[in-house]
Amino acid sequence: MKYRAEIDGLRTLAVLPVLFFHAGFSQISGGFIGVDIFFVISGYLITTILIGELDEGRFSILRFYERRFRRILPALFIVIACTIPMAWIQLDPQRFTDFSQSILACMAFVSNILFWSEAGYFDTDAENKPLLHTWSLAVEEQYYLFFPVMLFLLWRYGRRSTLGMIIVLTLGSFGLCEWMSRHASSANFYLLPSRMWELFAGSICAFALPHLRGNQWLAGLGLALIAGGIVLIDGTMRFPSAVTLVPVLGAVLIVLFARKGTWVARVLSWKPIVGIGLVSYSLYLWHQPIFAIARLKFGHRLGEMHMLALIGLALILAILTWRFIEQPFRGKRAFLPRQRQIFTASATGMVVFAAFGLMGVTSQGAAFRYPEGYQNFLLASERPSYHCITNSSTFSETFPLDGCFNTATNPQAKAMQIGDSHGWAISPIMIEMAKAKNISLYPANMNACAPIPGLYWPKADRPDACSQFTENALGWAAKHEIDTLILVARFTLLFEETGYDNGQGGIETNNGRISTFSNEFDPNESKETRLIKLRHQMLDRLVGLSREFKLIIVEPIPEAGWNVPGAGINLMKDIGKIPYLSTSYESYHRRNDPTVSLLHDVQARAEKGRVTLVRVDDLFCHEDTGRCDNIVDGLPLYFDDDHVSNAGAHRIVPRIVEALLSQKQGN
């Protein structure tokens, strides 16, 4: 295969946007499209090599995988090996468990499946996962499990028939991608079937290239499409989807038409650009572990200059890895020159790393790193095992959830607790106390869904999911003669649409989603105008709901802003004991007082006795100190940055149960 310097230049166009995007530079809003460019390049290069071997009658599947192992594994092994000690020092047990799972998945080339399965509401922030980026390697390796064999089997029917079948598969995969972008966005992002068309696009280039000539204009258009995608595409768009055609088509045009003599080829063949392209694989491998560990160590103190320095560090490590790890394993004088040697070494490395990953998982994140006295803290930091919560993609099939109800005999009260994940977090203790008080309780919780009739998510995959879930829940409650609803939700997030900043360096990165009371969304309407409407409509909807059911509304639960168990563990390392941890009461008031005022307006407008408000901030926060408890007496009150742990729920639930029983007695 003839070397093309411009392809290494195209690799630079792929890797640098990814780095700057992951570093948080807002100007590179579409930097993630670099992965799609890599897919096209990979499909083109591998298919070109395979076609040459098939034409010459020297195709060998073992030789193919030997090349893949030499190309992929040495650098991957060294990066993981260097990441492990940093993770050992910096990651708390929960994150270390996640990290260990990712090592296991990486060794089996299924990390894309792992990260898809974890891509839920409570998943650790993506930017803090050292091996998150290996999902794209898994997609490629899964593709190369079947593609060479498929090409070999089709080749007997001729080049044209083979190309025709690849085109059919490309169209099928693209159609699946577009459908999944609307109905299963997380699976669409991570899994091979809906990503395969991008690799196939590169394969088609390998067939078409010998029949085409360079073209200045088409090569320039390809460069323009990539540049436009980098700055114009952003995370609010469905991706991958039809919009992914922009970077994919851009890469295809450059591969096909940026030939020697075109100005695009001259630009991409400039030595500094080619140099970055040559080390792009190692650079891609290094950047995410470096960024993740730095963010966990220094948090939001990292500014743009710090991130630029980290990019420089990644580049230095990439050059060293390319020179002393990648290159020695490739070429005519490769280290471990025999096929059996490279397969044996690869298998040994994979087993060793998998064994380490298994140790990390089975030891609960190497919890033995901490003194025995901290085990209770670690156990109390675990998320509730209670499963009774649903997501936008599953609610219609699973409502009501089996096994999630507490039905008392001759109950003194009967209620449905309906809410979002804040409601789910207290549900286990609600069930426990309901049983003790002879109360029939029916929890119904949906991630990110405030229980207000008619609430839509205009920019979500399923805009009507929340509205439909609430409608189903209310219909079920009416059918079963439940007259009281306990509403527990993060109402403030509807209006803030941003995570909580506690003013002490704890800035939550999980933002809210845009919500309206209409499935029509006017992008030209100002945020201020839209939120004013949202407040008025929320008031009307809750007052209207109070005519159908009695309401017990829990006022906003204090948020923490930082991951409380993680912050506690980091402090333990410094002071040698479990700390007291708290946040500002003033910041709670500043963020939540408008919501509390709105809820009081609901109570004032509703018929007397139909709406009961339950205040909970005073259960965590103290006027005399101006602080809100996060960790008290060795126990975390939250299992992340805003959801209460069982210890936190034990503060809240008795007051809710008291309000419910008082309301019944008032009848």
TrEMBL record:
Residue ranges constituting the Acyltransferase domain according to the UniProt record: 5-322
Alphabetical UniProt keywords: Acyltransferase, Membrane, Transferase, Transmembrane, Transmembrane helix
Enzymatic class: transferase
Stretches that traverse the bilayer: 7-25, 31-51, 72-91, 142-158, 163-181, 187-209, 216-233, 239-258, 270-286, 306-322, 342-361
Domain of life: Bacteria
EC number: 2.3.1.-
MF (Gene Ontology): acyltransferase activity
InterPro entries: Acyl_transf_3_dom, Acyltransferase_3, SGNH
SGNH domain mapped to chain residues: 401-656
Protein known as: Acyltransferase family protein
Native source organism of the sequence: Thioclava kandeliae
